[in-house]
Specification:
single chain; mainly beta
Length: 525
């Protein structure tokens, strides 16, 4: 066993245990810091807070089996630490603390930490700057204003008055469009940390954002929006009740989310937990998400923005995360006009989501929509309706979604509008209490999916499974306890796959070039 350091700041550290178990460790353990017992823990990823800056620590983990693991680490130095209440913030949940907080941020020297002690800090949107840390201590809650007039509208693109070149500021759902300023935002900034066990509350449940979202003149605010930022870390904080997407890194680089929680009601519209868009180098490790839409949705712009910027989603790692009650646990798309490359998903636990691993695109996303080098390994799903969905007929979010161009099953000409999906490997997965289908994979006849591999996969259906729609596409039929369904996939490989409770054939494959089956078993419920 080995203890890995994920991130260390001046007052906090995040650590990960090696192993193969999804999210939870095989056995509970006690955390002893500098000889003193802190607490018991059961997760693979855990955090320490309220540490001292520039200090050496010795940590020992004592497991139920008697095994012990030790590690030494040193917290980072900092310029200074400032209390937000010294700038006039009250934290009583009634007083408007916007001016005090924004003034504190503006005054902070490079390398400083702004401390939020326990309290409810009511605020309009805030902008961060480079080289600072925000620490939300236990019991500290940043609460967003419920008054829409407090949210300025940010233009998506402005011309540089010197050169005429475009300067980008924001967008939503893959398009450059006006947006209400997000609760916490940073633009063209770097070296920012938001740490601590405190909370950022979008407070949308006390406003009308969720009720009138189709009638607004601009896109709803995000909870945290990072536009073209670099080296930003969120560690330990809880986000909740955003007006729309909760955490939205936008064309940013080297972004880390460690031991972060995101929550929203199941019926809240478009409250995705974390949607990195057009980003390079995103790490999502040890996080917990339960929201009203996709838990994680990786994006790279719709066709116009994808073709224009050509910023593929690259080098993303998702590991040791727990996803609950979203439409999709981990989704690619549908706005992936510039493609997705080098994605690793492992040791994750999904509970009660509609779909587990979900890839969605459609005609019109463009020739730059190329998804390659994607691996899903060591995944556990409990009560997920359809564990795996790859859908190239996605029919939501676009004005032409019901057009013949989208739904025609004829092989249409391949042109600059045609997406391409490469190789997908699903290995070491155990899925229990599925209902709709083990997998539903539906490629385009003119652009078949290159390869799909299933290896060491078990899917068990619930005895009381209910029918449902496995994928959002025109003329979709309800399914119940459907086995492995694959259409328009060039190469299919099935090895050591066990299905319990399938209604009908274990494998329904059509329009493929090669099919390899080794040990495909069927059991009973």
């Amino acid at each position: 066993m080995m203890i890995k350091v994920l991130t260390i700041s001046s007052t906090a550290g995040c650590f990960e245990l090696s192993g193969k178990a999804a999210y939870f460790h095989e056995e509970r353990f006690r955390i002893i810091l500098n000889g003193e017992l802190l607490r018991e823990e059961e997760r693979n990823v855990f955090s320490l807070f309220s540490l001292n800056p520039d200090t050496d620590y010795r940590m020992e983990l004592c497991f139920e089996s008697g095994q012990k693991e030790k590690i030494s680490f040193r917290t980072s130095a900092e310029r200074c630490a400032l209390n937000v209440q010294a700038f006039g913030a009250v934290g009583d949940g009634v007083t408007d603390d916007t001016k005090a907080i924004q003034t504190a941020i503006a005054c902070m020297p490079s390398g400083a930490r702004l401390v939020f002690p326990p309290g409810d800090y009511l605020t309009a949107p805030l902008f961060l700057k480079s080289n600072i840390t925000l620490e939300l201590r236990e019991g500290a809650r940043v609460v967003a204003s419920s008054n829409r007039d407090d949210y300025p509208i940010i233009p998506p693109i402005l011309p540089d008055e010197n050169t005429g070149e475009e300067v980008y500021f924001g967008g939503f759902e893959g398009n450059a469009m006006p947006m209400y300023q997000s609760v916490i935002a940073a633009s063209y900034a770097e070296n920012i940390r938001i740490i601590g066990p405190g909370m950022i509350d979008g407070n949308a449940q006390n406003s009308d954002w969720w009720k009138v979202f189709r009638e607004l003149e601009a896109a709803r605010p995000r909870l945290v929006f990072l536009n073209r930022c670099r080296n930003v870390i969120l560690h330990g904080v809880t986000g909740c009740n955003s007006a729309s997407w909760q955490l939205h890194p936008y064309y940013s680089e080297e972004i880390g989310f460690y031991d972060v929680s995101v929550k929203a009601p199941k019926n809240s519209p478009n409250t995705d937990a974390l949607d990195p868009e057009g980003c390079d180098g995103v790490k999502i490790i040890g996080c917990r998400f339960s929201v009203g839409d996709d838990c994680i949705a990786i994006k790279s712009g719709k066709m116009e923005l994808g073709k224009k910027l050509k910023c593929a989603a690259r080098r993303h790692v998702i590991r040791n995360c727990l996803m609950e009650f979203g439409h999709g646990a981990i989704t690619l798309g549908s706005e992936i006009g510039a493609g997705v490359k080098d994605l690793e998903v492992s040791q994750c636990l999904f509970r009660g989501t509609d779909r587990g691993l979900r890839i969605k695109t459609r005609r019109g996303r463009g020739e730059d929509c190329r998804v390659t080098d994607v691996e899903f390994d060591n995944i556990r799903m409990e009560g997920v309706l359809t564990p795996v969905v790859i859908n190239m007929w996605y029919n939501c979010c676009d004005p032409d979604r019901e057009s013949e161009y989208v739904w025609s099953r004829e092989a249409l000409p391949v042109d600059e509008r045609t997406p391409n999906l490469g190789t997908f490997c699903f290995s070491n997965m155990v899925c229990t209490d599925a209902q709709v289908a083990a997998c539903y994979i539906d490629g385009l006849p003119e652009s078949p999916i290159e390869k799909v591999c299933f290896e060491n996969v078990t899917v068990r259906f619930a005895s009381d499974a209910k029918p449902g729609i496995p994928a959002m596409e025109n003329f979709a039929e309800e399914r119940c306890r459907l086995g492995l369904y694959l259409d328009n996939v060039r190469e299919i490989s099935v090895k050591n796959v066990h299905l319990d409770g399938v209604a009908g054939e274990k494998l329904l494959a059509q329009h493929y070039e090669t099919l390899s089956i080794e040990n495909l078993e069927e059991g009973t419920i």
